[in-house]
UniProtKB/TrEMBL annotation:
Family per similarity comment: Belongs to the peptidase S26 family.
Protein name (database record): Signal peptidase I
Coiled coil: none
Gene expressing this chain: lepB
Location(s), subcellular: Cell membrane; Membrane
The species this protein was found in: Ruminiclostridium herbifermentans
Length: 190
């Protein structure tokens, strides 16, 4: 009987630990990795990072220059189950063993928020008539456009720091806030 109580106690502890870990990964903090060179020189291919997902719980909006993780599938609505299943399927621990390559989640920087007017001239980003000072970009941007982008309500405009090698809002459009999965916290080394 004493052995059975010990086994049940151990099993209960493991079960509670697993539930707490899943709750943290799904709703609070998630380990993930950077794929590609679009955020160089700030982040590099295969960097392991932790993202903060608490803004999503409180429906917060990222700030200018925040590094965010987005769901690039902007043409489809995200569901509650996307928020539950995808962190389990695409995180740094699972992909290490399964080899799943996460190509739907992109790491980018917030350049524009709702109501902002963005222009791209002379290798610079101009937000609301003011040229941005962006000391984090890898090299001067070659992209130019005569079009002005007005960021819609409940959306952000994101770009990679490696502007000349980045798929971002210039190509897929503005990102609905519910497609902003989390905000970059820090790099981890393993």
């Amino acid at each position: 009987m004493k052995i059975l109580k010990g086994v049940l106690s151990w099993f209960g502890t493991v079960l509670i630990s697993v539930v707490v870990a899943l709750f943290i990964i799904i709703f609070l903090f998630q380990p993930t990795s950077v794929s590609g060179s679009s955020m160089e020189n700030t982040l590099h291919d295969r960097n392991k990072i932790i993202i903060n997902k608490t803004r999503n719980i409180f429906h917060g909006e990222p700030d200018y220059e925040d590094i965010v993780i987005i769901d690039s599938r902007v043409d489809r609505k995200r569901t509650f189950w996307d928020n539950v299943i995808e962190p389990l399927k695409y995180n740094v621990f699972v992909t290490k063993f399964t080899g799943n390559v996460d190509e739907i989640f992109w790491v980018k920087r917030v350049i524009g928020k709702a109501g902002d007017v963005l222009e791209f001239k002379n290798g610079k980003v101009i937000r609301n008539g003011v040229e941005l000072e962006e000391n984090y970009i890898k090299e001067p941007m070659l992209y130019e456009s005569t079009d002005k982008v007005i960021v819609p309500e409940k959306s952000v405009f994101v770009m990679g720091d490696n502007r000349n090698n980045s798929s971002d809002s210039r190509y897929i459009g503005c990102i609905p806030l519910d497609h902003v999965i989390g905000t970059y916290l820090f790099k981890i080394g393993f």
